[in-house]
Amino acid sequence: MMMDADHLDETLNYAWQQGWITNRGIFNSLMAKVDPIQRNQDDSRQVLNGLNALEHEVRALSGKKISAAFAELLLSQVLYLNNMYK
Question: Are 85 and 48 in contact (CB under 8 A)?
Answer without folding.
Answer: yes
